[in-house]
Amino acid sequence: MTAHVIDGRAYAADLRAQLTDEVRELVAQGAQPGLATVIAGDSYPAHAYERRVRRLAEQLGLRYVRETLPAEVDEADAVAVVGKLGADPRVSGILVLRPLPPQVSEAALYRALDPLKDIEAVHPVNAGLLALGRPRFVPSTPASVFHLLDRYLTESGRDVQHVYQHSNVVLVGRSANVGKPAIMLAMERGATVLSCDVHSYTAGLLYEHTSHADILIVAAGSPGLIHGEHVAEGVIAVDVGINPVNDPDTGKVRLVGDLDFPSVSERGEAITPVPGGVGPITDVWLLRNTIRAARMALGVATARPLLEGMALQPADGLLNVG
Ligand code: NDP
C-alpha cells in the first residue's frame, strides 16, 4: 500500500479564498478586522511564524500590528502590552507567540488577554469553554488537524461520523496548545481516544498504542519518532511535528515531521507531509479566528460554523464571560 498524500496547501488555499470573501463582507459592513502579535526575544521559529501570519494578514486586507519585546522584558511590561492591545478597538485578535523568555510566564500573559480577542483559546475561560464542548475559538493547529481529517474522510466517500465513532484515535503529545485541544475535538466526534506522551515512550508502551490507531495524530516535536513498523496497515496518519534537521547530503537545514514519511507511507491509507500538511492550514486558521473575533465584536452572526462537521456548539450566550 502507498498512502494517499493529503495536500494541506490545497486545503489552505480553499480556506483562504473563503476568508477573502468574508473580509470583503466585513469591510462592506464598516469593519476592518485586525490581528496583533506579541513576540519576545529572538526565537527563530517564532519569528518565522510571525512573518508568515503577517504576510497572510496583509494579503487578506487585515490591519496588522506587531509588538516586539526584548528578550529581557519584564513580565509586568509584557502583561501591560497584552492589556493595551485588548483595549485597542482596531485589534480584533491577539496572538502571543511562543516561546517566551524564561522570566515571562505564559500563564500571566494568557490571563492578561481579552477573552474575546483570544484567537488561540489560551485564556483560562476559553480553554475551559473548549473543554466543556462550547468553544468560543478552536485553537488553530488542532482545528486544522480536524479540518483536514474531516475533509479527507468526506472526499473519500465515507460517512464521516461513522468513521470517527468506529475509530481508535491515538494522539502522541499532549501540550496545552496542540495535543490537549485535539483530544477534545476527537472526543467530541465520538472517537475512542488514547493520549500518549513522553511517559508512554519511556514506559515502552508508545508503539504498542500507536500500532492500534486507525487515525494517528502525532505532535511530539521528535523527528522521525514513528516508523512504519509502529503503525497498523491502513492507518490515516497526521503529522503535526515541525523539526529542523541538518541534511547530511546538502549540509542545509530542512524541516521534517514526527513521522518517518517513507516507511509510514508504505503502510498507511493516507498521510500528511511535512512541510505542506497541517502547517499551511494552521496559518490560515489563525486568520479565520481573527475574522471570527471581528464578527463577534461587531455583533454579526458568524457566517460559518466553528469547524465544519463538528458537534460542538459555539459559546452562544457566553460571549461576555471572563
Ligand atoms: P510541546 O513540546 O509543547 O509538547 C510536546 C508533547 O509531546 C508533550 O506532551 C511531550 O510529552 C510529548 N512528547 C515528546 N517526546 C515524546 C515521545 N518521545 N513520545 C511521546 N510523547 C512525546 O510541543 P507542541 O505541542 O507545541 O508542538 C509539537 C510539535 O508540533 C513541534 O514539532 C512543533 O514545532 C509542531 N507544531 C506544529 C504546528 C503546525 O502548525 N503544524 C503548530 C504548533 C506546533 P511531555 O509533556 O511528557 O514532555
**CATH topology annotation of the largest domain:** Rossmann fold
Q: List the secondary-structure elements in sequence, H or E.
A: EHEHEHEHHHHEHEHHEEEEHEH
Q: Could you tell me the mean pLDDT?
A: 93
CATH C-level name of the largest domain: Alpha Beta
Helix percentage range: 40-55%
| Low-confidence runs of at least 5 consecutive residues | 309-322
Radius of gyration: 19 Å
Gap from first CA to last CA:
50 Å
Give the biggest sheet.
6 strands, parallel
Count up the helices.
Answer: 12
CATH architecture of the largest domain: 3-Layer(aba) Sandwich
- Provide the spatial order of strands within the biggest beta sheet: 1-11-8-7-5-6
Classification by helices and strands: alpha/beta
What compounds are bound to the protein? NADPH dihydro-nicotinamide-adenine-dinucleotide phosphate
- The number of strands is 11
Domain count? 2
Would you write up a description of this structure?
The chain has 322 residues and is an alpha/beta fold. It has two domains: 28-116, Leucine Dehydrogenase, chain A, domain 1 (Rossmann fold, 3-Layer(aba) Sandwich), CATH 3.40.50; 139-279, 3-Layer(aba) Sandwich (Rossmann fold). Helix content is 42%, strand content 15%. The chain is built from twelve helices and eleven strands. The protein has helices at 8-28, 44-60, 75-87, 106-112, 124-131, 140-155, 160-165, 179-188, 198-202, 206-210, 261-267, 278-298; strands spanning 4-5, 34-40, 63-69, 93-96, 168-172, 192-196, 215-218, 236-239, 243-246, 253-256, 270-271. The chain has a six-stranded parallel β-sheet with strand order 1-11-8-7-5-6, sandwiched between helices. A three-stranded parallel β-sheet has the order 3-2-4, with helices on both faces. α2 (44-60) links the parallel β2 and β3. Bound molecules: NADPH dihydro-nicotinamide-adenine-dinucleotide phosphate. NADPH dihydro-nicotinamide-adenine-dinucleotide phosphate (NDP) is lined by residues 141, 172-175, 177-179, 196-201, 206, 219-222, 225, 240-243, 278-279, 282.
